[in-house]
């Protein structure tokens, strides 16, 4: 294929959108769609570069192109984080390093929260897309075998991946976002564009070049359109309709090209230059932003407070990208990259674990207890296996107890507050020979979540005898609770309202850490303040007089009379300002056991 400056323009546009989005420019509401452009371009180049007679040569060329700079950024991020961050942040970087070294960053982040969640510290988050690309390269020989048999398989795989992607968005948007099989359709738009509409990657239909301009206009304007990241609809969610539009727009540019006048204009040359450095820019920009803005327990911050910080970040990104491109990406070597990759990946994993251990050995026992709060919790909701095996499940059973000889069949209904107590609840249910079902959804009986009718129907289908409600205060309304109790009464089910735990104005582990560093942050709460804080909630709940309804107070376990945020040994009872750790949830164990045993 001849050199195509228009492809560099596409790369320049895509990396600019991604970087400006990550720098917090609100106008680029969907700047992350720049990654979709990269995927289409990669698919296009795979169709041009792949030679079925030289499979290993193809993979080696890809490795030489991508891996040196990839490894350097991982190593630099790991070392800088070790130098400036707390053990809490370092442990997260170590986990990300391990997944990245195995080319499974996308899988690692899929096992956590969504791409758009900022509560965790994720300076290597952007490597999820490299995980997807590398995994695609590894299956190219498999796909190409089908495509050589019949080009119609390109459409078959494209439609299958697209349909599955849009279907899974309605169940788990982050699965469609992170998992390679559900992104293949984007690569295949580029692959099909090269196979069907170009001459080995060169523009064939030059007289229709205006269609390339149409595609470019689509690329420029789509990222300004807002996407609902958590939407369960492919029309408004992601990856969905806008991803399809921007991918097809990229395909138009690849097929019909752009005029030389446009590419050689001032702005054209700017984007060609950005395209030239795009891979290095993409690799360095996100770790620089996140590390520069990092604060203890601050998660992934992209909030830039002043112009000085913004200019500093631009400078750091520019100089780092130039150095990475000049001295790593462009470096030519004759190493065996397959062996080198294995050695480098293994070395990064070992180094990351060593650095974490070293950091851990140089902090006090009080600090260790604080940092353990972030791992002192169980897997999220029903776990990944349930979502994979039965993606349409409304609830899961946590105790493993089955049969008709159970004392009770219980369902725990609630948001993340219920999630934080489910492990203790599970242990108590087992002790009482009772089963415990838990809802997969994190927002049952809340606005936009599962309605009372759905919850009760699910409970009825599982033979539930007792429903326990536990939410954060204000998460659901009196009317919703009353409706749930009424519907449960018709089905002969009892409902127990587990009152909310005390919450704090400060992030508890962060506050405890500041106090160790002599910042003297003083917070306190009494039982009386707890009741005053929840007076509106409790006054409404007291209006429910159904015979099947009870309230379970847990305030005495936390406030007697002053409320606790750490146990006697100094371990945090919360992993933030309002969610209990496993240690914290054990405080309500006796109250739960007494309630279940009645």
Tell me what the structure shows.
The protein is mainly α and 598 residues long. The protein has two domains: 5-361, no CATH class; 384-597, Rossmann fold (3-Layer(aba) Sandwich), CATH 3.40.50. The protein is 58% helix and 5% strand. The protein contains 27 helices and eight strands. The chain has helices at 5-22, 34-49, 55-84, 87-101, 105-110, 128-149, 152-169, 173-178, 184-197, 209-221, 241-256, 260-263, 266-276, 278-292, 307-329, 337-361, 365-372, 384-389, 416-431, 452-461, 478-490, 508-516, 527-533, 535-541, 555-558, 582-585, 589-597, and strands at residues 198-199, 202-203, 395-397, 409-413, 435-439, 466-469, 494-498, 549-552. It has a six-stranded mixed sheet, sandwiched between helices. Strand 4, helix 19 and strand 5 form a beta-alpha-beta unit. Helix 2 packs across helix 11 (241-256), helix 3 packs antiparallel against helix 4 (87-101) and helix 3 packs across helix 15 (307-329). It is globular. The chain starts with a helix and ends with a helix.
Can you lay out the helices and strands and say which pair or pack?
Layout: H1 5-22, H2 34-49, H3 55-84, H4 87-101, H5 105-110, H6 128-149, H7 152-169, H8 173-178, H9 184-197, E1 198-199, E2 202-203, H10 209-221, H11 241-256, H12 260-263, H13 266-276, H14 278-292, H15 307-329, H16 337-361, H17 365-372, H18 384-389, E3 395-397, E4 409-413, H19 416-431, E5 435-439, H20 452-461, E6 466-469, H21 478-490, E7 494-498, H22 508-516, H23 527-533, H24 535-541, E8 549-552, H25 555-558, H26 582-585, H27 589-597
Parallel strand pairs: 4-5, 4-6, 6-7, 7-8
Antiparallel strand pairs: 1-2, 3-5
Helix pairs in contact: 1-2, 1-13, 1-14, 2-6, 2-9, 2-11, 3-4, 3-14, 3-15, 3-16, 4-16, 7-9, 9-11, 10-11, 14-15, 17-22, 19-27, 20-21
């Amino acid at each position: 294929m001849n050199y195509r400056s228009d492809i560099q323009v596409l790369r320049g546009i895509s990396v600019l959108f991604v970087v400006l989005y990550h720098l917090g420019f609100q106008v680029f509401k969907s700047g992350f769609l720049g990654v979709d452009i990269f995927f289409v371009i990669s698919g296009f180049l795979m169709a041009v570069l792949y030679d079925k007679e030289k499979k290993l040569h193809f993979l080696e060329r890809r490795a030489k192109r991508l891996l040196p700079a990839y490894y350097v950024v991982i190593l630099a991020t790991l070392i800088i984080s070790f130098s400036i961050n707390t053990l809490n942040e370092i442990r997260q970087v170590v986990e990300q390093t391990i997944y990245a070294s195995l080319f499974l960053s996308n899988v690692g982040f899929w096992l956590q929260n969504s791409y758009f969640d900022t509560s965790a510290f994720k300076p290597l988050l952007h490597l999820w897309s490299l995980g997807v690309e590398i995994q695609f390269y590894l299956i190219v020989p498999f796909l190409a075998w089908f495509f050589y048999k019949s080009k119609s398989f390109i459409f078959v795989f494209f439609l299958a991946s697209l349909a599955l992607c849009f279907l899974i968005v309605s169940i788990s948007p982050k699965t469609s976002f992170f998992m390679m099989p559900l992104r293949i359709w984007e690569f295949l738009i580029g692959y099909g564009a090269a196979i069907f509409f170009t001459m080995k990657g060169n523009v064939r239909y030059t007289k229709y070049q205006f269609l390339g301009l149409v595609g470019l206009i689509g690329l420029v304007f789509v990222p300004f359109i807002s996407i609902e990241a958590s939407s369960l609809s492919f029309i408004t969610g992601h990856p969905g309709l806008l991803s399809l539009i921007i991918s097809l727009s990229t395909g138009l540019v690849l097929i019909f090209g752009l005029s030389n006048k446009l590419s050689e204009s001032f702005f054209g040359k700017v984007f060609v230059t950005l395209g030239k450095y795009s891979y290095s820019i993409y690799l360095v920009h996100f770790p620089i932003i996140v590390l520069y803005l990092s604060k203890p327990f601050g998660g992934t911050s992209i909030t830039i407070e002043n112009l000085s910080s913004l200019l500093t970040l631009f400078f750091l990104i520019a100089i780092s990208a130039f150095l990475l491109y000049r001295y790593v990406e462009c470096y030519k070597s004759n190493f065996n990259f397959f062996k080198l990759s294995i050695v480098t990946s293994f070395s990064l994993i070992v180094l990351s674990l060593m650095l974490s251990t070293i950091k851990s050995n140089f902090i006090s026992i009080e600090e260790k207890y604080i940092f353990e709060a972030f791992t002192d919790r169980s897997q999220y909701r029903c776990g990944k296996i349930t979502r994979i095996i039965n993606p349409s499940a409304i609830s899961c059973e946590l105790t493993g107890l089955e049969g008709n000889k159970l004392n009770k069949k219980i369902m725990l209904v609630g948001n993340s507050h219920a999630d934080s107590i489910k492990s203790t609840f599970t242990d108590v249910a087992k002790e009482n020979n009772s089963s415990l079902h838990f809802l997969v959804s994190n927002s049952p009986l809340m606005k936009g979540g599962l309605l009372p009718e759905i919850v009760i129907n699910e409970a009825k289908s599982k033979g539930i005898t007792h429903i326990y409600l536990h939410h954060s205060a204000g998460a659901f309304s009196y009317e919703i609770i009353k409706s749930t109790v009424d519907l449960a009464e018709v089905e002969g089910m009892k409902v127990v309202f587990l009152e909310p735990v005390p919450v704090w104005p400060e992030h508890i582990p962060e506050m405890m850490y500041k106090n160790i560093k002599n910042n003297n942050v003083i917070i306190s709460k009494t039982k009386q303040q707890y009741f005053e804080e929840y007076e509106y909630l409790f006054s409404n709940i007291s209006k429910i007089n159904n015979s099947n309804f009870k309230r379970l107070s847990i305030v005495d376990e936390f406030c007697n009379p002053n409320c606790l945020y750490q146990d006697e040994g100094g371990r945090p009872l919360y992993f933030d300002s309002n969610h209990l750790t496993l240690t914290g949830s054990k405080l309500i164990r006796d109250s739960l056991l007494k309630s279940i045993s009645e």
